[in-house]
Amino acid sequence: MHTQIAIDGPVASGKTVVGRILSEQLGWRFLDTGLMYRAITWMALHEQIDASDHLALENLAINSQIELVASVEGDRLFINQNDITDELRSRSIEATVSFISQISGVRTALILKQREIASSGSIVMVGRDIGTRVLKYAGIKVFLTASTDERAKRRFSQALEINPDTTLKIVKTDLERRDLIDSQNRESPLLPADDSVIINTDNMEIDEVVQKIMQLLITK
């Protein structure tokens, strides 16, 4: 039986919620790799490291200890023993994470950490380059997608919690900006792996997407 499921896709495609439910149903571990990039971004802002200082950011990624700790309130993310869970969606991180995640040395350092985590047991891992770089030999690879309008609607309610003055138009524009940055990333462009199953989640309930992936696990 396959023991690794790689799920990729753009922002608000549903990969995190789908991946988490899958892991719960299978009794496997779950890792949202995007949180690791947000953690490094938080640390860079905290230590006032400029986003253009690639060497300093690479060293930060190499030397930082990132932990995902289960609690009754849900998983908590720690970096160098700092619980930063409640700050991961802040405006400053939202504005900076795409740029820091493009840095080759940062991605290389975090990919090594992600592979190390995956090596210790069955896992559902979600991100933007899991099937193409992190877990190239995963038995199940899925690329979730959805229209920009649909993704903006999904993201809007979450964005309101951070900034009550935001609008759907602002959220959509930001998604388009993020999509452009991710697609032009030289190290890990946002693309499905050649052997990924592409699922358009427009007009699909979360449970439908989960069941479709569960079927892949049975039939592949």
Q: Your description of this structure?
A:
The structure is a single chain. The chain is α/β, with parallel strands linked by helices and 220 residues long. It has a single domain (4-209), classed as Rossmann fold, CATH 3.40.50. 50% of the residues lie in helices and 15% in strands. It is built from 9 helices and 8 strands. It has helices spanning 15-26, 34-46, 54-63, 91-100, 104-118, 130-134, 148-162, 168-183, 206-219; strands at residues 4-8, 29-32, 66-69, 76-79, 82-83, 123-127, 140-145, 197-200. The protein has a 5-stranded parallel β-sheet. A hairpin with a 2-residue loop joins strand 4 (76-79) and strand 5. Helix 1 packs across helix 9 (206-219) and helix 7 packs across helix 8. The longest helix is centred in the last third of the chain and has 16 residues, at 168-183. The model has no long low-confidence stretch (mean pLDDT 92).
